[in-house]
């Protein structure tokens, strides 16, 4: 007789992430493990982890820590929850900043500025919600099979091949 132990998988999770790059990896790891245990498809898990990483990076770069005016100290909040229809909502909340989160139009040679375009290509929907004391929450809804067909074009822009960004620089 085999004994099967059911593993409790939370339908939602929230965690404080240090304001800075140190906590981003831990948050991605925790999300990946929880979503895999929930039975979510690998493609949605991969998209959600990329989205979380982009949101956290943007919050650290452009937002203040929660409850604090000085950048570099304190936390931001990452949260995700599954709904009954299988959709996943990812949220990152920071203490606000001097600008609003909007997709950029970076030049082909720009090193950044594509994060919200990547999110737009992967997500069913996303938006920004203002909270108490100047808090800003960027939320994203991810569902199975929603990735847009023109993902590579939208992320990289004209004249730039998506897969070229993954070329091995040491390959001849």
TrEMBL record:
<dbReference type="GO" id="GO:0004674">
    <property type="term" value="F:protein serine/threonine kinase activity"/>
</dbReference>
<keyword id="KW-0723">Serine/threonine-protein kinase</keyword>
<dbReference type="Pfam" id="PF13581">
    <property type="entry name" value="HATPase_c_2"/>
</dbReference>
<dbReference type="GO" id="GO:0005524">
    <property type="term" value="F:ATP binding"/>
</dbReference>
<dbReference type="InterPro" id="IPR036890">
    <property type="entry name" value="HATPase_C_sf"/>
</dbReference>
<dbReference type="InterPro" id="IPR050267">
    <property type="entry name" value="Anti-sigma-factor_SerPK"/>
</dbReference>
<keyword id="KW-0067">ATP-binding</keyword>
<keyword id="KW-0808">Transferase</keyword>
<protein>
    <submittedName>
        <fullName>ATP-binding protein</fullName>
    </submittedName>
</protein>
<keyword id="KW-0547">Nucleotide-binding</keyword>
<feature type="domain" description="Histidine kinase/HSP90-like ATPase">
    <location>
        <begin position="20"/>
        <end position="136"/>
    </location>
</feature>
<keyword id="KW-0418">Kinase</keyword>
<dbReference type="InterPro" id="IPR003594">
    <property type="entry name" value="HATPase_dom"/>
</dbReference>
<feature type="region of interest" description="Disordered">
    <location>
        <begin position="1"/>
        <end position="24"/>
    </location>
</feature>
């Amino acid at each position: 007789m085999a004994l099967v132990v059911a593993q409790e998988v939370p339908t939602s999770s929230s965690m404080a992430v240090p304001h800075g790059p140190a906590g981003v990896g831990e948050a991605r790891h925790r999300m990946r493990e929880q979503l895999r245990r929930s039975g979510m498809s690998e493609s949605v898990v991969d998209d959600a982890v990329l989205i979380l990483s982009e949101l956290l990076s943007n919050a650290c770069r452009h937002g203040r820590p929660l409850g604090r005016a000085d950048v570099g100290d304190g936390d931001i909040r990452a949260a995700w929850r599954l709904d009954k229809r299988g959709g996943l909502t990812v949220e990152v909340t920071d203490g606000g900043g001097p600008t609003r989160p909007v997709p950029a139009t970076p030049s082909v040679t720009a090193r950044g500025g594509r994060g919200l375009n990547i999110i737009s290509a992967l997500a069913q929907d996303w938006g920004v919600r203002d909270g108490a004391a100047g808090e800003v929450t960027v939320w994203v809804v991810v569902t199975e099979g929603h990735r847009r067909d023109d993902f590579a074009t939208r992320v990289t822009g004209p004249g730039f091949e998506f897969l070229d960004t993954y070329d091995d620089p040491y390959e001849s």
